[in-house]
Amino acid sequence: MADPYNSGIPSPPVLRFEDSLVTTAFELPGYRVAHNLGVVRGITVRSRSIVGNFLGGIQTIFGGNITIYTELCEQARQETYRDMVKHARQLGANAIIGMRYDATDVMTGLTEVLCYGTAVVVEPLR
């Protein structure tokens, strides 16, 4: 299967891509959007292991934060974020605006996590 993140001709970014240039807002204060490169995304599908379900079941007896599931969710979010940023870099972006997360149950115990946003090239305001 072809890599869906390698479909574009990369161009050199104006600024170095940094996490501070990823935002849920639709603009970055102090910058102007010079080019809109389109939607970028990272996606993963995760399942809970038998051990994870067992430990999570034990934690639910006592209530509170179910840390085994919290860690699984955070790992999925980090992975999809990393893939989204990689996709944006491959397109030549130096920022992402309108970033969002979404999650959908594909089936019992199987969850799709999606991170998406708009890849852009920004320039500092003069």
Give your account of this protein's structure.
The structure is a single chain. A 3-stranded antiparallel sheet has the order 1-3-2. The protein has 126 residues and is of the alpha+beta class. The longest helix is centred in the middle third of the chain and has 25 residues, at 67-91. The protein contains 2 helices and 3 strands. The protein is elongated.
Question: What secondary-structure arrangement, pairings included, does this model have?
Answer:
Blueprint: E1 31-47, H1 50-62, H2 67-91, E2 95-107, E3 110-124
Antiparallel strand pairs: 1-3, 2-3
Distance between the termini: 44 Å
Share of residues in strands:
35-45%
Overall, the morphology is elongated
State the secondary-structure class.
alpha+beta
Helix/strand order, N-terminal first? EHHEE
- Number of β-strand runs: 3
Q: How helix-rich are the residues, as a percent range?
A: 25-40%
> What's the number of helices?
2
Low-confidence stretches: none
**Gyration radius over CA:** 18 Å
- Order the strands across the largest sheet as they lie in space: 1-3-2
Main sheet overview? 3 strands, antiparallel
User: What average pLDDT do the residues reach?
Assistant: 82
